[in-house]
């Protein structure tokens, strides 16, 4: 699908091919993300803010009722966490400024893949059940497994 999108830039099926490629990549980590082919729809009514608490740039891929991707710049002054417990307690604290992006998503289940653009190109996933009347925050961060280099 990526080859098709690169080769046939003016084809009317290019946007769909790009979205199928995104969903397929997410489904390699979260198989449920590949249960349905994505549509070319975009947008919705529920705000989701994605923050990057990582010293690396991170590419965010998402699929569900809508599919897309965007990249957040590295967070100046952010570091790799020693373990998941430390990250859970300290990542994306309120009152601090992080590189962020905002999505408007429809109600339903959305699957996220966070791809660190650091030296290890590691990734992390999340599944969110988006419901009306709430505001959601996704947080990308890096955890160093067993003290051997970063992983998200």
Give an overview in words:
- The chain is globular, with a radius of gyration of 16 Å.
- The chain has a single domain, classed as Carboxypeptidase-like, regulatory domain (Immunoglobulin-like, Sandwich).
- Residues 148-152 have low confidence and may be disordered.
- The chain has helices spanning 2-7, 14-27, 84-90, and strands at residues 46-52, 58-63, 68-72, 100-105, 108-116, 123-130, 136-140.
- It is 18% helix and 30% strand.
- Strands 3-2-5-6 form a four-stranded antiparallel sheet, covered by helices on one side. Strands 4-1-7 form a three-stranded mixed sheet, with no helix packed on it.
- The chain has 152 residues and is α+β, with helices and mostly antiparallel strands.
Fill in the keyword field for this structure.
single chain, 152 residues, alpha+beta, Immunoglobulin-like, 4-stranded antiparallel β-sheet, 3 helices, 30% strand, disordered C terminus
Strand count, sense and barrel status of the largest sheet are: 4 strands, antiparallel
Q: Please tally the β strands and state the result.
A: 7
Q: What would the CATH topology be?
A: Immunoglobulin-like
User: Superfamily at the CATH H level?
Assistant: Carboxypeptidase-like, regulatory domain
**Percentage of residues in strands:** 25-35%
State the helix count: 3
Q: What is the average per-residue confidence, as pLDDT, rounded to a whole number?
A: 90
Task: Output the CATH class name.
Answer: Mainly Beta
**What are the low-pLDDT stretches, counting only 5+ consecutive residues below 50?**
148-152
User: Strands across the major sheet, in which order?
Assistant: 3-2-5-6
Distance between the termini: 26 Å
Give the domain tally. 1
- Please give the CATH architecture: Sandwich
Question: What is the H/E string?
Answer: HHEEEHEEEE
> Helix fraction?
10-25%
Rg from Cα: 16 Å
């Amino acid at each position: 699908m990526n080859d098709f999108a690169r080769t046939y830039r003016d084809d009317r099926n290019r946007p769909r091919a790009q979205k199928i490629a995104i969903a397929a990549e997410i489904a390699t980590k979260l198989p449920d993300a590949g249960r349905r082919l994505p549509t070319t729809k975009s947008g919705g009514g529920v705000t989701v803010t994605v923050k990057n608490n990582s010293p690396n740039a991170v590419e965010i891929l998402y699929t569900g009722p809508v599919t897309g991707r965007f990249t957040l710049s590295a967070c100046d002054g952010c570091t790799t966490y020693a373990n998941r417990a430390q990250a859970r307690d300290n990542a994306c604290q309120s009152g601090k400024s992080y590189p962020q992006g905002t999505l408007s998503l429809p109600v339903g289940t959305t699957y996220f893949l966070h791809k660190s653009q650091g030296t290890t190109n590691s990734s992390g996933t999340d599944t969110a059940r988006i419901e009306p009347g709430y505001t959601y925050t996704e947080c990308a961060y890096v955890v160093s497994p067993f003290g051997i280099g970063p992983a998200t």
